[in-house]
Fold Mg-protoporphyrin IX chelatase.
Amino acid sequence: MQKQPIYPFAALVGQENMKLALKANLVNPSIGGVLIRGEKGTAKSTAVRALAELLPEQEVVTGCAYGCNPHDPKTMCQDCLTRLEKGEKLEADTRRVRVVELPVGATEDRLLGTLDLETALKEGQTRFQPGILAAANRQLLYVDEVNLLDDHLVDALLDAAAMGVNTVEREAMSVSHPARFTLVGTMNPEEGELRPQLTDRFGLCVQVRGLTDPNSRQKVIKLRLLYEKDPYEFSRSYEAEGEALTKELARARDLLPKVEYSQAIIDRVVAISLALEVDGHRGDLTMLKTAVTLAALEQRNQVELKDVDQAALLALPHRLRRRPLAEMEFDIADRLKRV
């Protein structure tokens, strides 16, 4: 049976900041992912799942459970590295980067993977069953209702996001594997807030609300009904726009290493962080990386001040001091005018 096509990213109406934050992470994963906050029915999950058609292709070691990069020994799993050190040529396949989803209610073993103690004791061999973090290596890891995750799963995500490695320990046995991923989370603040430690791990944060323009709301209804009537035909009608968007992102990725910024740009980044009383330096770095990415998306090789201001809207809302997230309103634009 043919799998029903996902709702096209190009067919999403409005929510420009959300779409921009997602596209920026596809171009530059080092930004650190995005947290999407908003009420029910605002296309949060639809937008993330629609990224699957826009993700680039990547080379992976054939048969590797972690999809290691065959050209980067520094990020390889131990098995691939050992084979390489023995002089073995690593065969490679090409596949599209995937959206790996952490299901609601997933167990710790499902997330981290499991060690087979019985086999280890009987045969003296360590047998590891990889989990979601293994599948998510070099991929996009999507967590819906991220604010409802159990604390022990949050801790595991924090450790993996910080170290880029997942370590599973049982009794006297231990297995580690690479777990570098772009983290994307969606949540409804009405159902509870997210732990500050995990909130800070998201590079960008956007707030989405229901559209207030009557024409836009009508368009949402009409497009959704067309999709439900015939998802295959609807998806085909957006193929050209989807291909154009994919090429746009590919051009931005190619241009990204060539984008330059001046001292004035750094001055603006620091001035904004100080004026808004942003804690730490992670926000500064993320703001600059995002500004560089925004310039690449517009096919410019020079960052402009407007890029920094736009980046601040995406990189700083969840980092402002003395502002409870439950009351967070994205009014940074008004404050930037006074910087």
